Amino acid sequence: MSFVDQFWQLTVTGLLVGAIYAVIALGYTLVYGVLQLINFAHSEVFMLGAFGGLFAVRALLPSGNINALLSVLLVLAGLAFGAASGGLAAFALERTAYRPLRRRGAPRLAYLISAIGASLFASNLAGKEFGRDSVNLPKDLFTYNTEVFSVFGARVSSQDLVVFLVALAMLLILDRVVSGTQLGRGIRAVAQDADTASLMGVNVERVIVRTFVIGGLLAGAGGFLYAMKFNASFTMGFIPGVKAFTAAVLGGIGNVRGAVLGGLVLGLVENYGQFFLGADYTDVVAFMVLVLILLVRPSGLLGERLGRAA
Amino acid sequence: MTTAVSARLSSPLARRLGGCLFLALVTAVVTGPDGSNVHPLDGVKNSLLNTRVFGFLVFGLLLFAVTSLSGRTKPIGLTQVRTRLSQAVGQRGTRPTGYLLLLAIAVLVPLQLSPAAQGSLFLDVGIYALLALGLNVVVGYAGLLDLGYIAFYAIGAYTTAYFTSSVINGKVVYPLPVHSPLLLNPFFVFPIAVLIASVAGIILGGPTLRLRGDYLAIVTLGFGEIVQILARNSDPLTNGSRGAFGVPPLSLHIGGFSYTWGQDALPYYYLLLGIVVVVMIAFSRLERSRIGRALAAIREDEVAAEASGVQTLRYKLLAFAIGASTSGFAGVLYATRQFFNPETFSLQASILVLTIVIFGGMGNIFGAVLGAVVLQGLAYILRDPIPLIGFKVPDADRFVYFGAVIMIMMVFRPQGLVPSRRRKREITMSEQGMGSADSLGSGEVSA
Amino acid sequence: MQLRRSVPLVAVLVAGSLALTACGSSNNSSSSGGKKTIKIGFQGPLSGDNAQLGINGEFGVKTAIEEANKKGDLPFTLQLVTSDDIGKPEQGATAAQRLIDDSGVVAVVGPMFSGATKAAEPAFTKAGLLSVSPSATNPQLTSLGFTTFFRVIPPDDAQGQEAANYLTKVVKAKTVFSLDDKSEYGTGLSSVIEKQVKANGSTVIHDGIPPTKDYTAEADKVIAAKPDALFYSGYYAEFGLLVRALKSKGFTGTIMSGDGSNDDKFIAAAGASNAEGVLLTCPCGDANVDPNAKDFLASYKATNGGAKPGTYSPEAYDATNAIISVLKSLGNDATNRQKVADAFKTVNFKGITKTIAFTPTGEVTAKIVFVYKVVGGTRTVLGTTVDLVK
């Protein structure tokens, strides 16, 4: 078993995980772009989206067999409900843990702690309401063992393909939203200079709320993808949250394309690292690479301003 | 900017009513019955579609009435008490009576507590107060966000395990698979651990302290994770997840006099209290020294500090090393309670120390200690029924309440329990729209 | 909400919510008809990430206590006192001390996790308070001089040896991939298995992976190593994900895991079709499938609002019943901690998982290991290793 034999398999797996990191990382990066804050509770938005999507699909799931069309519809429904739950959670989060502090001109670290409090509250409340065991779909939406295609010998299941394609689609849509729409212009304007944007007639408060909600929609849908592939539990947010935050920093925090690149690079690095050093040291490799990259490029792979991203 | 936004935000009565009722319903759900993953919405349904919800709604209306009736009048009495409190502990003027009173409380109150509470007072409150004091130098004085602080605590603990052994059941037990050829009394490990931890701090800080704000946060977070992963996986060195068992308790042998800190927590607590007091005195002197002023300059405006001749990197390294050595020192104390394993040195623990520092009042040594007392005390007290009303928070829900308290506290008092004078000024200035409340990183919070 | 007038608001909030919750929960702390009350403590992770395992244990203890009180043949009324250690060593000593401080507590079921046990037992030993763990399986625990420590579950080495014998002698695996979750439990179990597999002349490949959701890369690695069998030392949630990943990558070898995974939730997590044919070992008879435990199953559900027994529930139930049998035999001396701890050394009680009797170091003598197989989406008992491995 040499690295060359395994290379494509590791690459495929790395890109898949990386795409999910990227989807979550966007929420961190957008909020950072407009507020220069690490939204520590973003991981719980992801978790709530996962539960929302999973429970919705479970309620809609017919008892008989599922054909291809039905499974596509179910995935779409799960994505929609997951995104809705995530968006709602992000909205509530902004209202309760961020806005009151903004009105008081609180120091930046107070936001961090308020978000940590919100994160503890949300994840443990989810444990209380949804049980403390992990939950997954009662049956697979896609039959396993079906290799859709193989890349240079790497096995790719249909579900993996769906997860990757959906994540990719979301990333593309977001990129268009940020670079091409009026809302996107507002976000970029606030990111570059909130005071000036406000003078130019941008409703800064509204932009902030919408930025949170967009991040929440993405994280919620990402949560559903993650739960479909793995499972959902009340503590599920923390580790992907830390990884996605790392990915955002790696790519240049505040930079949309940077977050995507950061997510994919992190996913790949972790998988290659795991091959050489074993699963124990996956995170060690990931963080070592992060430190090295930051030492060479102190503001991440693609630099950090959201305004420059588009 | 700030004024423009707040004018637009002035909320009508209806919105406040909505907020109060929403809060009431959230409280109803939090205190209501559990749900399950089979029926995920049952918990919420049973909490809200039940007669008890009317009680909560009445409470919400009451809340609305009180907040509306109190109008714009400020709660003067409480504000005064608050100011006086923060004066008593936060101001420079020496107030020996105030300090002596606090010390007397710290000495006498534990005598009235149960042994379990005394244990918690040492392990949860005292150790974390010491950790918070060290992190306060890094975060509060120098303005560096360190999310891997607990790694130095781990280094202190493992250093202790390496240099010691104990006798259990007549057999010599080494806490780790490897041990130093020269075994020491844990007291002699203190200087070694402090040295190793501060060297580790400098090795980590050297290349990374050039990074600013949040980049530093993520790199230190990575360092913390790496140390924990290494501790968990290097079985031949650290015994892996089985942890280190058999670190001897602290003991003192001077001439004919000999004393061992045994299993009881109280002697440990008093020793730690002494250490905390010494550290507090040392750090308050540090804050007022040339170093402290240089750190404050770096925190408020790094570029300006650099321009006026402050060697910023050197001072930042110094702050980092001071924080790390305090953490390493605390690690030795923790290890001498016989057993530890890598789970203790998690990212969550780093986050808890940071929360204590900010919650207490960043930059204020009394804040750091008070934060530890209040937060860790809360975590302990929530295990028992709440006095007067007898409601016991279910164990599994404790962190729901804990999180809510942190959030509410930050919303109503973002500067922490007892903010430092300097920071208070920074915040007031920011409220008036003059610059940012914080110079961590580059930008201000825009809005 | 206008947040400026913070102080009265907070006051009302706190007072109001406290008052309301007081109305909301009227705990039934009724008196006991003239009988003396004796308390049994429970220590385990009741909050945090591993709360579910703690709740499993607590409910088992509760079931036994309620049964005994209902029967009414005890000269005293039993009461449960819980103490949460979050499953962490740094909370273990404090949680233990809380039970020790309550002078009414004469015996403790727990601690549940090995790390918390190591931190807690010195205090129990010093106080002379009996503690019976339903689940701490680290082999080291009975050799550290804890004089009042007992466990009703065999340590990992017993289970590991039997599992290794089954894999090499019944499954006839020539190469065994041993994977653990890097936890205290997982590494303890995997090291015993690896030793025994080697002793039986087969090859071992070792790897460890801390709990994660993504086992895709690990599955690639396992398949590339081409083992005949894989043994996972870890818990059911991760094992379910691992099996999913292995099957989706087309792994065809035998898959086996230990007691940490022996739970119906594993099948749910893996998906029934993926779990088909997976083997599990456990020193326990599982209450949900064991015909001997039918009464327990009904009683557990009745006591705990319809919840099903989970991992370690039956062990906690047996440990409690063993303690109750000792208390009963002691009669008026049942309030004396030291006498309870001494009398427990010679207990001989037939529980639903095994006969509870102990070696002088506190190990349970019955080292029965069952082998389970997933057939048609449910776990079925193949038998004990004594019968299966000839």
Low-confidence stretches of chain B: 1-9, 72-78, 434-447
Determine the N-to-C terminus distance of chain C: 73 Å
Task: Spell the H/E element sequence of chain C.
Answer: HEHEHEHEEHEHEHEHEHHEHHHEEEEH
Mean pLDDT of chain C: 86
Total DSSP helices of chain C: 14
What's the main sheet of chain B like?
2 strands, antiparallel
CATH topology of the largest domain in chain C: Rossmann fold
- Backbone shape of chain B: globular
Largest interface: A-B, 69 and 80 residues
Summarize the main sheet of chain C.
Answer: 7 strands, mixed
Order of strands across the widest beta sheet of chain C?
Answer: 7-6-8-9-10-13-14
User: Helical amount among residues of chain B, as a percent range?
Assistant: 55-70%
The CATH topology annotation of the largest domain in chain B reads as ABC transporter involved in vitamin B12 uptake, BtuC
User: Strand arrangement, largest sheet of chain B?
Assistant: 1-2
User: What structural category characterises the helix and strand content of chain B?
Assistant: mainly alpha
Query: Using only CA atoms, what is the Rg of chain C?
Result: 23 Å
Strand-residue fraction of chain C? Answer: 15-25%
CATH homologous superfamily designation of the largest domain in chain C: Response regulator
How many structural units, i.e. domains of chain C? 2
CATH architecture group name of the largest domain in chain C: 3-Layer(aba) Sandwich
Overall CATH architecture of the largest domain in chain B: Orthogonal Bundle
